[in-house]
Amino acid sequence: MTALQAMVIAVLQGATELFPVSSLGHAVILPRLLGWHLDQHGAAFLPFLVMLHLGTAAALLLYFWRDWWTLAQGNLGLVANGFLLLLGERLRTSAAGAEPRAIASLTPIDALTIGLWQSLALLPGISRSGATIVGGLLRGIDHAAAAHFSFLIATPIILAAALKEVPKLAHAGLPPGTFALAFAAALVAGAVAYASTAFLMRYFRGHDEWALNPFAYYCLAAGGLSVLWFVL
Asked: Do residues 190 and 42 lie in contact, with contact meaning Cβ atoms separated by under 8 Å?
């Protein structure tokens, strides 16, 4: 294969890969139509075509980099959340020995610090409750108290979001019945959230030594599998 032939096939690949006309078919047929005597069954031809596809993939990554970055943030943010939970448990364990503080002993500085941890949830994949529980643990309270405080400070955020967004349902020109459906779904979500809160508070009280570890391992597994899924 000459350099000119390679460049022609490369241009053909770059153009036809993105059109629904089969780039591989063109790469096989065109050389024969032009009378090029290429050994398409040789050891080098298939790897050559794969290299052309690799160039095409690089172009797609470059063009759609924002979409890939968003996907990566969602997955790698999930993996980072797992490490965050493990880090919180490890730091808390290394500081073990002191009696856990009561939630009533939290000062304004403690609350501000935990609130800053909560802001990590602005990153895709980072759990708001996970970050605030870790923040609470690092301020010396136990898992149950940290979860209690985390759930308390969630309420103003959710109510503020509701005041801002829910009225839009009345002015968005939605199909009839949409608001009623959303209201019913909200009732179901509320019932499940109430049950989840009751379960988690019992769970944190009963597993104070390692309560965040299962959630950390889940995030690491789910995030890792998601990365593999998108890569493969």
From this structure: no
Q: 141 - beta bridge partners?
A: 101
Contact between 204 and 144 under an 8 Å Cβ cutoff? The reply is: yes
Tell me the CA distances in angstroms from 113 to 102, 117, 140, one per residue in order.
16, 6, 12
SS (H, E, C) 80-98: HHHHHHHHHHHHHHHCECE
Name the nearest CA neighbour of 128 among 139, 142, 118.
118
pTM of the shown model: 0.69
pLDDT in tens, 3-53: 776 777 677 666 666 655 455 566 666 666 777 766 656 666 566 666 766
Neighbours of 183 (CB within 10 A): 11
> How many CA atoms lie within 13 Å of 173's alpha carbon, on the beta-carbon side?
0
| Integer CA distances (angstroms), 116 to 155, 187, 202, 216, in order | 16, 31, 26, 20
Distance CA 223, CA 74 (A): 8
Alpha helices by DSSP H, listed for 34-127, are 45-63, 65-94, 108-118
Lowest mean pLDDT among 17-26, 103-112, 119-128, 220-229: 17-26
Which token pair is 231? 């890569």
